[in-house]
Amino acid sequence: MDLTLYLQFFLGLVAIVNPIGLLPVFVSLTSHQSDAERQRTNAVANFAVLVILIVTLLAGNHILDMFSISLPAFRIAGGTLIVVIAMSMLQGKLGEVKHNKAEDREAAVKESVAVVPLALPLMAGPGAISSVIVYGAEYTGVVNLMGMIAAILTFALMSWGIFRLAPAIFRLLGQTGINVITRIMGLLMLSIGIEVVAAGIKGLFPTLV
């Protein structure tokens, strides 16, 4: 059991999803709801994220095999996507890169926003899914899978706690404080993306490295 691996996996999810950076989006999407409805949306969204990421972790390797995609090639693709999202985060545009105006209009008329667009694609988006697939394909075995499932569960509980206190945290940090945290997470995420791309290039062209 490699606790360092599971901690790295957990911190990667924190940086990529950045639940604190999504607080303004969460508050906006649930502004029409009562406190009880907001907490239900929070619980449903994070449970959906938990299910999506665990299913992705368990099925990711089979998906790559189904499409005959090598792990190094997927590393480069996933790492590039993470870099693109990180660059947007560094500019304070996390919400814009994870959902567009059309999705905003669709969300505005929906009674429930917990699963779509909150859980997918805002939280369990392409960046998080790519990262989970890479880890699941590289670190196989029951022990590693159980460790990463525990990390996903811990992340979902942490995210649920953050969203539960969303109004208070938003008032405390303000938009400026959230933007600062988003940029810090973006820098960490950019580093993760570059590491993933570098590992993919090394896997595809071992003689060049």
How does this model look, in words?
The chain has ten helices and no strands. It has 209 residues and is mainly alpha-helical. Helix 1 packs parallel to helix 9, helix 1 packs across helix 10 (166-204) and helix 4 runs antiparallel to helix 10.
Q: What series of H and E elements makes up the topology?
A: HHHHHHHHHH
Residues in helices, as a percent range = over 70%
Mean pLDDT comes to 87
Percentage beta strand: under 5%
Rg over CA atoms, rounded to whole Å, is 17 Å
Secondary structure: number of strands = 0
Based on the model shown, name its key terms:
globular; mainly alpha; 10 helices; 209 residues
Chart the SSEs and their pairings.
Blueprint (H helix, E strand, L loop, with lengths): L2 H15 L5 H7 L5 H32 L4 H20 L3 H5 L2 H8 L5 H10 L2 H13 L3 H23 L1 H39 L5
Helix pairs in contact: 1-8, 1-9, 1-10, 2-10, 3-7, 3-8, 3-9, 4-8, 4-10
In short:
The chain is mostly helical and 209 residues long. It has ten helices and no strands.
